[in-house]
Amino acid sequence: MMNTVKAVKNALICFVLLPRFLAAAVVFWLLDFLCIRKRFFLRMKEQGGDANDPPMCISDSNRLFSFESLKAVWHGQKLDFLKAAHLRRGAPNTEVVRLEDQRHSRILDCAHGDRPLILNFGSCT
């Protein structure tokens, strides 16, 4: 039963992510194409060629719309969709360990009244 629920959940996530993935993949493909085209014209101009008459096929990179780039776009979309924090929503109340007594508590347990809670994520090295 749990495997069926997990499979249905994964199928729904894929169904929701598919339009976002396709839109992002097309945008990245267009950006790659524009970057390659710009590099090609700059190279052509440096060699003294006529930049107004490019060849029909511009193949400067083999990563253009490759399987690896599509996997990276899918992975990025999936991570963005499944993250705990979302814009304009409440912050996740994750578990933390207090330094003074190694006790486990939640972040919002440290907030008191109307006082803002400030979290400092840094290192002192």
Automatic annotation (TrEMBL):
Segments crossing the lipid bilayer: 12-35
Q: Which domain of life is it from?
A: Eukaryota
Q: What Pfam families does the entry give?
A: T4_deiodinase
- Keyword list, A-Z: Membrane, Oxidoreductase, Selenocysteine, Thyroid hormones biosynthesis, Transmembrane, Transmembrane helix
Biological role: Responsible for the deiodination of T4 (3,5,3',5'-tetraiodothyronine).
Tell me which family the UniProt entry assigns to this protein. Belongs to the iodothyronine deiodinase family.
The cross-references to PANTHER family, in alphabetical order and at most eight, read: IODOTHYRONINE DEIODINASE
Task: State what protein this is by name.
Answer: Iodothyronine deiodinase
Show the taxonomic lineage.
Answer: Eukaryota, Metazoa, Chordata, Craniata, Vertebrata
